[in-house]
Write a structure and sequence with these properties.
Helix content: 10-25%
Number of strands: 10
Strand content: 25-35%
Number of domains: 1
Distance between the termini: 26 Å
């Protein structure tokens, strides 16, 4: 599926029966690009890993009103915004080089969703907010499941994802490795 570099589609899962594909018409779509960032809908731009706080604020503000300087343990700076049913948080932790954007969280307003979201969160040709976790687990490559699904996710769940965390910086991953089994990293 994701091989890094340019934005590639999830070709290995395309065309599978029951493949949760991203709708192509009339639906607002955020697009995850691991290693790159998050493409915002409505041609608002891309929140790119490595960009400065000011650049991230400017990019996000082309889509929605932003909130800056929210408190998050271990973060040098944060910004968040809500666009329809989606909340996006972007931040740089203390381990991010040069205080550059290193982490993105894309969340649904509904925390334990029983149904698909009104807005798509695309990863390649898959809508991560559009289908139950068990269907996503069937079509995602193992490395992509590890990247996109929570470590404690029930891969047979009929619920939909409520959030996806994407990290370009090693800070949160190192913290998760140090956390006791079952504990959440403090940056969440």
């Amino acid at each position: 599926m994701w091989r890094g570099g340019a934005a590639e589609t999830a070709g290995s899962s395309a065309g599978l029966p029951g493949n949760p594909a991203v709708p192509q018409t009339g639906r607002v779509t955020f697009r995850l690009l691991p290693g790159i960032g998050l493409v915002l809908p409505a041609n608002a731009g891309v929140l790119r890993f490595g960009m400065t706080e000011h650049a991230a604020q400017w990019t996000a503000s082309t889509l929605a009103d932003i909130r800056v300087d929210g408190w998050m343990c271990g973060a040098r700076w944060t910004l968040s915004f809500r666009y329809r049913d989606v909340l996006v948080t972007a931040y740089a932790c203390t381990a991010c080089p040069g205080d550059a954007l290193g982490h993105l969280i894309v969340e649904r307003a509904t925390r334990a969703p029983e149904a698909a979201a009104g807005i798509s969160l695309a990863f390649g040709d898959l809508d991560l907010f559009g289908y139950p976790i068990h269907e996503l687990a069937e079509v995602l490559e193992p490395s992509d499941r590890e990247l996109l699904l929570p470590a404690d996710a029930n891969l047979r769940s009929t619920r939909h994802l409520s959030a996806v965390h994407l990290d370009a910086c090693e800070g949160r991953r190192r913290e998760a490795d140090r956390a006791p089994s079952g504990a959440e990293p403090s940056a969440r």
